[in-house]
Amino acid sequence: MNKEKARGYTLAALLIGITVMMILIAAVLPLASTEAQREKEEELIFRGRQFAEGIRIFRRRFGRYPNNLQEMMSVRPRCLRRLWKDPITNSSEWGIVTPQTLAPVGLRGGIGAGPTPTPTPTPTPTPKPVFKDEEGPQRPMGPVMGVYSLSNKKSIRIYDGRDEYDLWQFTEQSIGSGPGPAGPGIGVDGGGPPGGIKPK
């Protein structure tokens, strides 16, 4: 009889332990998920700025914007270290900021101020067709002024006053250089602290 009671107590203690463990896991998982999302956002900002810096270097060197992202890799010396993937979508596809899609404050798809650059031939001959991160052919798309994520999900951070990833535009202005209304270290909308990152 005592053995049966002891077994009953052990089983009850085990069930209580499992329940407590499940509660703790349920409490920790959202925190881990939020932290992982914050890290992806940091990486998106880093990679977006890498593209923006590559575009700035290309424009300073050739007096125009690149016709596509790959052109920054095909010139010598290269203007971009690598064709980064979008960490939010885990895809090599990016939205391209052109003169027609350069958004003013808080608007999606607005027309930005300034002259419209005209696409011109690549400064060096390209021996092979241009490929998108070795996944397939990509046609020239005109002057590339910046990039943005194709994800329209809500972000944890607010970047340049925007809380959706596809509204985070990474251009020369977003890194505080090149023509436009933004000053050093201030994003396209001209507001916020250096780097345009404002924690929620």
Radius of gyration: 24 Å
How many individual helices?
2
Shape: elongated
* Mean pLDDT over the residues: 74
* Count of distinct strands: 6
Number of structural domains: 1
Which structural class do you get from the secondary structure elements?
A: alpha+beta
* Pattern of helices and strands: HHEEEEEE
Task: Identify low-pLDDT runs.
Answer: 105-117, 123-140, 177-200
**Major beta sheet, specifics?**
3 strands, antiparallel
Helix content: 25-40%
Kindly, what is the distance between the CA atoms of the first and last residues, rounded to a whole number of angstroms? 60 Å
Strand order of the largest sheet: 1-2-5
User: Which range does the strand content fall in?
Assistant: 5-15%
How is this structure best described in words?
- This protein has helices at 2-62, 71-74, and strands spanning 95-97, 146-148, 154-159, 162-164, 170-171, 197-198.
- It has 200 residues and is α+β, with helices and mostly antiparallel strands.
- It has one domain (2-198).
- Strands 1-2-5 form a three-stranded antiparallel beta sheet, with helices on one face.
- A hairpin with a 2-residue loop joins strand 3 (154-159) and strand 4 (162-164).
- The chain is elongated, with a radius of gyration of 24 Å.
SSE topology sketch:
Elements: H1 2-62, H2 71-74, E1 95-97, E2 146-148, E3 154-159, E4 162-164, E5 170-171, E6 197-198
